[in-house]
Amino acid sequence: MKTVLVGLGRIGFDFHLPALLSHPEFTLSAVVDVDPSRLAEAEVPGYTDLETCLLEVKPALVVIASPTHLHCEQTLLAFRYGADVFLDKPMTTSVEEADLLLETAKRLGRKLMVYQPHRVTDEFETAKSIIASGVLGRIYHVRRAVHRYRRRADWQAFSSFGGGMLMNYGAHYIDQLLALTKAHVAEAFCFTDAVATLGDAEDVVECLLKTKEGVLLSVSINEASTFPHTPWEIFGEYGTAVFDAASRTFRITRCDPASLPDTKASKSLAAKNRSYHSGEVIEWISEEISLSPAVNYYDHCADYFCKNKPPFLPLEESVALIKLLNSLKQR
Predict the structure, then answer these.
(1) CATH fold for the domain made of 121-294
(2) Averaged pLDDT in 10-residue chunks for the chain of 331 residues
């Protein structure tokens, strides 16, 4: 499939460019970036103007990895020239633009899918398998976190460009948790602050989502913390799984429900031995889970755009995520 890549920043140059050059289903015919020096680095024909590129190259697919505030305009332009679009996350900055892209894609019969690579990482695949195995029992809380100290100074530091860690990392982690639990948000709370950033967009995010299914989902993003945090915590009725970043394994401590002591609760106001604890001894099982292989997102991309299979990530889910992220901004 003849493809054009728009944007040669970190994501475009480090992720999309090598993926397109190495994947057998795609032919990278041109790249677009406003910085001429970046075009030379790509070693394929380059343009500083997207419309000129679309007019001359006539691609079947446009991969857009430009700053978020440009996503809607560039996607609509690609549609106008008859191309499908693979769009980097987040889909766009506003609910109105997300609805417009969904409506336009349907009206014109164009394909549009959003790049959410954290749905196919080795960590995600392993977390999914742990939950599916049932060893933790009913999952009641899943937590994602990233804590570090970083004085953000690029375009992501500015709200006017669609920056900020809620739309940046939050778009990954909230999407991960919703996909893992297949849950639907009933209540939401979000606290944000701009602390270490050199711009005006938030670099501290604390988000709590209570789902209709009764699962608590929490996301903690802190770019102003000098201590790290456990990246993954999965809490179930029979145990807990946490991700150890050093060994890159999930550590699980759990019990076998069949081996739990036959202990009964008592409503007596005189607690036995004046203790809050029943005195039961639980046999704990500890294990380490190696990471499952990551999945190549571009294989899913090829299935949809090249082989006409259903989209790996339905567009409606991407629109719903933008609506949730924008609602969290108001809280």
Answers:
(1) Dihydrodipicolinate Reductase; domain 2 (3.30.360)
(2) 96 96 97 95 95 98 96 98 97 96 97 96 96 97 98 93 93 95 93 97 97 96 97 98 96 95 79 71 94 93 97 96 91 64
**306 Cβ contact list (under 8 Å, min separation 6):** 1, 25, 26
Helix (H) or strand (E) holding 241: strand 239-244
Locate 21 and state its tokens: 């050059």
Class of domain 2-117+296-325: alpha beta
CB 176 within 8 A of CB 232: no
Taking each helix axis from N to C terminus, what angle separates 170-181 and 122-133, rounded to the nearest 10 degrees? 30
pTM, two decimal places: 0.91
CA atoms within 13 A on the CB side of 53: 30
Tokens coding 202: 């938030």
Q: Where are the domains of the chain?
A: 2-117+296-325, 121-294
